[in-house]
Amino acid sequence: MMEKVLSSQSGQPVGERRTENLVSRRVARGTLVLLALFLVSLQVPTLYTAFRPLPPHAAIALSRCRALSLTPGPSVDFYRRKESDRFVPGTKPYLLRNGKVWTGAENGTEVIRADILLDKGIIKSIGHIGHSHLKTYRDNVVTVDLKGAWVTPGIIDLHSHLGVDSAPRLLGATDTNSHHGPILPWLRALDGLNTHDAAYALSVAGGVTTALVLPGSANAIGGQGFTIKLRETAERTPTSMLLEPPYQINASFPDQTDRPRWRQMKHACGENPSRVYGNTRMDTIWAFRQAYDTARKIKESQDAYCVDADAGNWDALKDKPYPEDLQWESLVDVLRGRVKVQVHCYETVDIDDLIRISNEFEFPIAAFHHAHEAYLVPDTLKKAYDHPPAIAMFATHSRYKREAYRGSEFAPRILAEHGIPVVMKSDHPVTDSRYLLYQAQLAFVYGLPENLAIASISSTPAEVMGMGHRIGYVKEGWDADLVVWDSHPLALGATPKQVFIDGIPQLKSPHVVNKPASFQRTPKVPNFDKEAADAVKYEGLPPLIPSKTTSSPVVFMDVKSVFVRADNRVREVYSAQDAELGAVIVQNGTITCMGTYSTCVTPGLLADAEIVNVKGGSISPGFTSFGSNLGLGAIGAEPSTMDGYVFDPLVQKVPAILGGDGTVIRAVDGLSFGTRDALIAYRAGVTKGITAPAHRGFYAGLGTSFFTGATNRLDRGAVLQEATAVHITVRPASFGSISTQIATLRRLLLRPIEGDSGDWFRGVGEGRVTLVVDTDSADIIATLILLKREVEKAYGNIVKMTVTGAQEAHILAKEIAEAGVGVIQTLSKPFPSEWEGQRILPGLPLSEQTSIAVLLAQNITVGIGTLSPAEARNLPFEVAWVALDAGRAISKEEAIALGSTNVEILLGGDIDTDGHDMVVTEGGDILDMQSKVVAVVSPARQLVDLL
Ligand SMILES: *[C@@H]1O[C@H](CO)[C@@H](O)[C@H](O)[C@H]1NC(C)=O
Ligand SMILES: *[C@@H]1O[C@H](CO)[C@@H](O)[C@H](O)[C@H]1NC(C)=O
Ligand SMILES: *[C@@H]1O[C@H](CO)[C@@H](O)[C@H](O)[C@H]1NC(C)=O
Ligand SMILES: *[C@@H]1O[C@H](CO)[C@@H](O)[C@H](O)[C@H]1NC(C)=O
């Protein structure tokens, strides 16, 4: 794979050169095979058999033996194909005029202005396509003027469970992991592929055209993966979705001169396979070695057999058929170098183990997936058998378990600097593959070069899966899989205007917005050289505490804008005029002047002031995280690092010593400060977290608001508000029906029980306390609206109610507005992961409106959340994306409010008090990709943190 990547980097047309090599090798091999066949047909290959007929099994055996030396890859005449094997008759040719095309050539640096002609499922030509070219088409060709729009190859996802881990999640369509043992190379993801998954169309709408669907990671060897194209097929079957399926899917052995096709095999090490069988890492690695030892013995017996067969030694082979075993044949193929081994592996110990195994049994590893510590051991990667594996990563999704704890957003960049191929992947539905491009954008923000960032979701995964000969590039002869974008693909919010798979346009009537010229250029990104170096220096745990804190005057120079909180909103109070050099003075953590340099900066002030040039930066309210357990512990999957779950009186007995059913738990008592997720969020401008007690079912307790930069609860300003709101969840549960949960809520509100619970729920009825209900379903929201009315009637008060999750809220926007209910969409980019929330409004290009836009249009107070603590740091990007996607003019003020003031108001935050933290960004405002948070101004703590 490395060789292929390198050859494509030399700038020569890869396809042609490869074909040439292939032809000469193929001619040589073909001649040998013909000669052998000729000799066999004469039955005079050697002395031994010269006068005897061959045994009946000889033909099959010789055919198997001959096939052993074949290496996988495209057939000899592949590049002369006139039509794709996936061509759908009747598909019209398309001429896309005037695109700005990222071709994938020249190490991903080639961008050309070109026309592209698609026909018969392939890219027929690219460049300037004149009339003479089109003569044969007459009027049949559909011509589209792209007007300079960006075009890339279709996005390729190297790690997906699309179709096997289905959306919406249903017990009847969960085929990711078999639990029948650690070693299952004979299982095939193809056999469980659900064709009705709601995600196919959504992922296509995000530009994904091809995915490698892998079994899960519950086993050391989980089974074989399959590459699919995501479009609908006339046949409607899993088989018809496959791209170059290996012949082994039905044990058909074609003409032995045909090269085999690449196969894919899932391996996993570390926590996941250990967790399932009560194994340790030692057990898992032994399971691998034992399996490979079995496969090696079969391989050796085949090789020995073929030595005899080739020598015509049929006496020795008289009653012996060719040795093979259907259960182990795929693993034997791994040892023959004909399988792309895709290894889920996180930690140094696991990577080291697998590289040792690859050398012991002599097979190459195509890629390590997740591999959160790979960037710490590049030299170990280079010691893998045959070539260094590619690394397939998440951009910022880390620390959810121990082996992800040292994950770094700088890993893609660092690995690329070591020449390791970098792939960004979704692990769909762990992250939604519709937004795989977003992962490449984040990798780009944190330093992966532009050419490699686009390649990381196109040409690089194509090469890693052995499909680089037909997908991953925009080149003549390659499959007609393309995305036409509404902006530069790495600009935040980039959205397909059209997606072609096998030459077929996938978006029936796409909704498109025209983005301004500034979105058509390569986005600028901040410099993170020091942070990246520190990630390695500190083995993934660089210090995160602010480097300097000061109460002395700080002069922020070249400030372009200042946004502040005012009247429960965000207002822009300063905006530098064109040539004006804006200055903001902060003393004791309070802004004392903002305006031109000459008005604010006096000579006396400069004497003991800290001067920070923010290069066109901005000051704005800090963001507030909600939706995850941020603040309740360090590593989600490690109970010893977490607060744990509250008792749920609906389904279990609450200990009497705790006060029984009337007890209300306060999240504030379970906070742990200084977690890496919180400090990283702080450094990204998310200065507050609001968190409900962690709960599994209906009952949560009192939320709390805390400062993400604090190191302990006694720090000044660590806890901003002890109790914010009462939180409960109403969702389908295996125990305690939805109707039971509603009945419980009704009772708690209308007939408050003894104890704390009674006080708090009475507070809700009296309009003093906000009730926050987590649910996605429009049906449940409707019921909550009725319940709210009922309670308001009983108490004669307005009840403050907020719905979080709320994926189906757009269906009831008008009613929600009338009822005065607020909404926090915790999954800012909607995805139908559960049945109860599947009626999403998908947004561009599938729908003109987004849920957020619909809710805002009704003047509903709306906020945005993040579901995992590691993603809290991405809140500014999420807000920016949502604002762009809303497809109408959302002002910066409104957008910032979605991630700050609105979230607090909706969750019972006390926003009247002064002293909220402000975030200072360099190079742009908080919503810009190019900006970097350099300071936090804290009136409450009377200081400035310089990061
Ligand atoms: C490919 O691009 C990367 C990043 O721009 C660069 O570091 C690398 O040297 C390039 N490789 C070749 C072969 O030019
Ligand atoms: C086996 O699968 C291949 C596709 O990979 C197909 O062309 C062939 O017809 C199948 N053979 C049988 C016997 O089903
Ligand atoms: C800042 O605070 C310190 C200590 O509270 C005080 O002595 C000083 O006067 C304050 N400076 C300003 C400019 O308010
Ligand atoms: C929302 O508020 C704006 C401004 O106050 C008002 O003009 C508009 O009519 C309101 N929309 C709805 C649906 O109430």
TrEMBL record:
<keyword id="KW-0812">Transmembrane</keyword>
<dbReference type="InterPro" id="IPR050138">
    <property type="entry name" value="DHOase/Allantoinase_Hydrolase"/>
</dbReference>
<dbReference type="GO" id="GO:0004038">
    <property type="term" value="F:allantoinase activity"/>
</dbReference>
<dbReference type="Pfam" id="PF01979">
    <property type="entry name" value="Amidohydro_1"/>
</dbReference>
<protein>
    <submittedName>
        <fullName>Carbohydrate esterase family 9 protein</fullName>
    </submittedName>
</protein>
<dbReference type="GO" id="GO:0005737">
    <property type="term" value="C:cytoplasm"/>
</dbReference>
<keyword id="KW-0472">Membrane</keyword>
<feature type="domain" description="Amidohydrolase-related">
    <location>
        <begin position="150"/>
        <end position="503"/>
    </location>
</feature>
<dbReference type="InterPro" id="IPR006680">
    <property type="entry name" value="Amidohydro-rel"/>
</dbReference>
<dbReference type="InterPro" id="IPR032466">
    <property type="entry name" value="Metal_Hydrolase"/>
</dbReference>
<dbReference type="GO" id="GO:0006145">
    <property type="term" value="P:purine nucleobase catabolic process"/>
</dbReference>
<feature type="transmembrane region" description="Helical">
    <location>
        <begin position="27"/>
        <end position="48"/>
    </location>
</feature>
<dbReference type="InterPro" id="IPR011059">
    <property type="entry name" value="Metal-dep_hydrolase_composite"/>
</dbReference>
<keyword id="KW-1133">Transmembrane helix</keyword>
